[in-house]
Specification:
Fumarylacetoacetate hydrolase, domain 2, SH3 type barrels, globular, mainly beta, binds magnesium ion, single chain, 5 helices, 260 residues, 12% helix, 42% strand, twelve-stranded mixed sheet
Length: 260
């Protein structure tokens, strides 16, 4: 099931996306009564997908991101795979949705794309044992861990480098029926392939990461865990169109603009 968040005529809601481009009449969104955490009802009111504006599919309280979780990517930046996962936060204010612009920050000259599988948490949890991890996950979406690489090198903590406004595109929706362990993950810039990997190359699995993070902190419904990026990261410039595609989910596309 694909759960999207959308706006239509000034109203914001959640819905289940049904069908695709090949479906007669095109895909539709079946509006959900309330929020998609726990049991929910579909209203049966269906709107063509091209009539709504898709928003970030979740509004996280926090985003916990993992660095250097693909060996080839760690190596391309001259780093080893760490003994313990590197975890950092991106703030809620960094989140944007599909089609929203990435605003190039004034304090960087080297902003990179990082295509990542995002885990969306479905229920409040802490100290989750490995065998219960699947019970706390609502589903998966595409993310771009947009990074000011020059600032990341210069500053000890990555709060500014990875936390600036618009640095966390998420979407286009949350896919709830997905095995995350061997999915193709790709990033293109202006249609040219930059990153190509498989989630099977993660050093630590989704289960490892949820156990590790919830050992320290409570995760809330809608919280997001970014699982690291495969090799091939590189620069974005104003005017670029960057797209993250994950097998079984879809494509998240954003344009880079000058910060106004
Ligand atoms: Mg990253």
């Amino acid at each position: 099931m694909r759960i999207a968040r959308f706006s239509l005529d000034g109203t914001v809601g959640y819905g289940v996306v049904e069908g695709d481009a090949d479906t007669q009449g095109g895909p539709v969104i079946d509006i959900i009564k309330g929020i998609p955490y726990g049991d929910f009802e579909r209203s049966g009111t269906k709107i063509p997908l091209d009539k709504v504006r898709l928003l970030s599919p979740v509004l996280p309280n926090k985003i916990v991101a993992i660095g250097r979780n693909y060996a080839e990517h760690a190596a391309e930046l001259g780093n080893d795979v760490p003994d313990v996962p590197v975890a950092f936060f991106k703030p809620a204010t960094s989140v944007i949705g599909p089609g929203d612009p990435i605003a190039y920050p004034s304090f960087s000259q080297e902003v990179h794309h990082e295509a990542e599988l995002a885990v969306v948490i479905g229920r409040m949890c802490r100290e989750v044992p490995r065998e219960r991890v699947k019970d706390v996950i609502l589903g998966y979406t595409c993310a771009n861990d947009v990074t000011a690489r020059d600032v990341q090198r210069r500053e000890q903590q990555w709060a500014r480098a990875k936390g600036f406004d618009t640095s966390c595109p998420l979407g286009p929706w949350v896919e709830t029926d997905l095995d995350p362990h061997n999915l193709g993950i790709m990033c293109t810039v202006n249609g040219q392939q930059r990153q190509l990997g498989r989630t099977s190359d993660m050093v630590r699995s989704v289960e490892d990461l949820i156990v590790h993070i919830t050992e320290a902190m409570t995760l809330l419904p809608g919280d997001v865990v970014l699982t690291g990026t495969p090799a091939g990261v590189g620069p974005l410039v104003v005017g670029d169109e960057v797209a993250v595609t994950i097998e079984g989910i879809g494509t998240l596309t954003n344009k880079v603009i000058k910060r106004g």
